[in-house]
């Protein structure tokens, strides 16, 4: 099992997924899966989008690289009928044109080799089928805070969070509609927002764990300082921009 498959399954991502519920709700509403349509949720995480699609009557398959995430998604699904698979977004175990709807909420954007993952999304979606994605827009402040600890390596999400590069990734296969939105991370103070992300956002949690213990406070302090810039009398409201992407398979 790869390191990524391990650390994506650790932590409490379900806490973050719960806060992102309005985004999941809108994505499902805009995709509007009909009964018996074949729906694929790639990098499902704890299954938030897949569960909504199943309750709407779609025939849902959900996959994730991390067995730990799949276990959590199965538990969250309860009596919802969903086929769960452990699978890499760069090499999906499904036939060409298998699905009417292919979606991923803040999931496939973390796959290495974005070109390979994008090609797989197109391959498994039937012609005339629908695509739905949400992707974080690169955040200059948080990227700058991480640079001293990541040897200057940018996040793989950056290519998905830029409309021009997203068109290059997917535009040949899908007619795209791209809208920029903002999600707000909130807390009583910067330390509380840090606590949420450092325990529930797998990439940040993994970065923190990779550092020598003596360097971890510096990473924490860098992020807390950022969050405190967005504090008022009601607490912290930290803006996180994302792209809301809908597509139609050519």
Please give a handful of descriptors for the protein shown:
alpha/beta, Rossmann fold, eight-stranded mixed beta sheet, 11 helices, 8 strands
Describe how the helices and strands are arranged:
Layout: H1 3-8, H2 13-19, H3 21-31, E1 38-42, H4 48-55, E2 59-64, H5 67-77, E3 82-86, E4 99-105, H6 114-124, E5 125-136, H7 140-150, H8 163-170, E6 174-187, H9 190-200, H10 202-210, H11 216-228, E7 231-232, E8 235-249
Parallel strand pairs: 1-2, 1-4, 2-3, 4-5
Antiparallel strand pairs: 5-8, 6-8, 7-8
Helix pairs in contact: 2-9, 3-4, 7-11, 9-10, 9-11
Explained architecture:
It is a single chain. The chain is α/β, with parallel strands linked by helices and 250 residues long. The chain has a single domain (3-138, 154-186, 241-249), classed as Vaccinia Virus protein VP39 (Rossmann fold, 3-Layer(aba) Sandwich), CATH 3.40.50. α2 crosses α9, α7 (140-150) runs antiparallel to α11 (216-228) and α9 packs across α11 (216-228). 39% of the residues are buried. The chain has eleven helices and eight strands. Strands 1, 2, 3, 4, 5, 6, 7 and 8 form an eight-stranded mixed sheet that branches.
């Amino acid at each position: 099992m790869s390191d990524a498959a391990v650390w994506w399954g650790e932590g409490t991502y379900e806490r973050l997924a719960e806060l992102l519920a309005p985004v999941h709700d809108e994505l499902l509403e805009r995709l509007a899966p009909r009964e018996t349509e074949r729906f694929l949720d790639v990098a499902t995480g704890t299954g938030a989008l897949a569960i909504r699609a199943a309750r709407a009557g779609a025939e849902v398959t959900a996959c994730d690289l991390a067995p730990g995430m799949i276990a959590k998604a199965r538990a969250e699904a309860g009596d919802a009928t969903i086929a769960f698979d452990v699978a890499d977004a760069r090499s999906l175990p499904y036939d060409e044109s298998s699905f009417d709807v292919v979606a991923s909420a803040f999931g496939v954007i973390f796959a290495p080799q974005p070109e390979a993952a994008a090609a797989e999304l197109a391959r498994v979606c039937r012609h005339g089928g629908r695509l739905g994605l949400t992707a974080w827009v690169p955040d200059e402040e948080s990227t700058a805070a991480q640079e001293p600890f990541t040897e200057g390596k940018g996040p793989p999400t950056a290519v998905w969070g830029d409309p021009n590069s997203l068109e290059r990734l997917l535009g040949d296969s899908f007619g795209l509609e791209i809208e920029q939105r903002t999600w707000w991370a909130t807390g009583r103070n910067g330390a509380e927002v840090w606590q949420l992300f450092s325990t529930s956002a797998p990439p940040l949690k993994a970065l923190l764990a990779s550092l020598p213990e003596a360097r971890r406070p510096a990473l924490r302090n860098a992020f807390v300082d950022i969050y405190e810039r967005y504090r008022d009398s009601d607490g912290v409201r930290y803006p996180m921009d994302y792209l809301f992407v809908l597509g139609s398979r050519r």
